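Quick start: what a row looks like.
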Amino acid sequence: MALDALIRAPRAIVNGAERAVEVGVKDGQIVSVEQLRTDKTSAADQDTTPEAAVTVLNLRQDEVLLPGLVDTHVHVNEPGRTEWEGFASATKAASAGGVTTLVDMPLNSVPPTTTVAGLERKRAVAEDQSYIDVGFWGGAIPGNIGDLAALHEAGVFGFKCFTLPSGVDEFPHLSPEEIEAAMRETGRLRSVLIVHAEDEDSVKHASATHSRSRDYADFLRARPRGAENLAIARVIETSRRLDSRAHILHLSSADALPMIRSARADGVPLTVETCPHYLTFVAESIPDGATQFKCCPPIREEGNQTQLWDALGDGAIDIVVTDHSPCTVDLKALGIGDFSTAWGGVAGLQVGLSATWSGARTRGHSLADVVNWMSTGPADFVDLPSKGRIEVGADADFAVFAPDEEFVVKVADLHHKNPVSAYDGSTLTGVVRATWLNGKQVDITAAPRGQLLSRGEA
């Protein structure tokens, strides 16, 4: 078979292990994965790539070929709040960070993705701007249960809801009774309800006691672990009772891990994610007034972080995704540093892999573990079997990663639209040197080649 590209990788993550391979690419797919050989009988030396049009990539010994990352928690914000982020800037940043597929959240855009019309509007603006492949979540809000079936049929990957106010008026939260009704419908559709889980009454009470402050400790007390734990418990019991899939977004509180482990042992159809910022930063090190670190639920203490890492190791937490939630500089209220008024969200799409690997390697985890958490696992979560793996039949999406190279994050160098990130000034290990999408290297100076994905696509 004449190939379009041949990648020779002395180091690659294949089937959960590091191997030396030659990967053949044809028509955007992987058509061969063979052992890399250095003698004259290797595939490369048997004249399998004689044509000048064939791209040959020889990786260096300090580089590892990874399957492209799949980030299932990204707020692109376009249309409606494109000044916060947009499909062009978000997908450029993603590609620079080794991400080849993202799934966009249904809120912060106007209109939100709570109707088929809203989905069509979002797909229309994304179609010609996306440098990587993009899918979409639907939203579950009060009064739109009747819209979920049509959204499901139109190809959304599942439905997001909040248990307390989301921060934007056009995406209101669900009551416990409404969550049960939504989960009953998503179960009927064989879909999944993904939940921002913090108890509204608990947060209201805590926030009333600890309000308007530059003190990060006060902000932490305003979003207590108990609020997260209580909401997660309700989600688990609803999922158990209805036997309907539920997913806990951005797990922050390690106190919830025992009930998560128990539920999973009981067969409750529950999955869980956490985020690089929870695995990288600790509350004790966040300066007062540093609102670039504000997110909800919040970054917690060092001991809590250690337990999150342990849960990744034993499988209680399934995946790591960025929850990239940017905003304009003014909305972060950096000048006054008031955590109660600043927008909550960490912009980290471009550096998620490096941040996670930096922490993982110091705790004895392998690069194969990180690939499982950030590529294969998320692809499996949203049922995209052609993504997140280097195997025959998969899409030829890759990240060329130098795992031992250090760099200092400079917010001005990121492709995010607004120069605000908690990672600014951090020293991280692991540099993405190239990203390939559907068999070709991504070039952010050329026309976008990303495709729009729908549920059920192979």
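That is the whole record. The radius of gyration is 22 Å. The CA atoms of residues 84 and 158 lie 24 Å apart.
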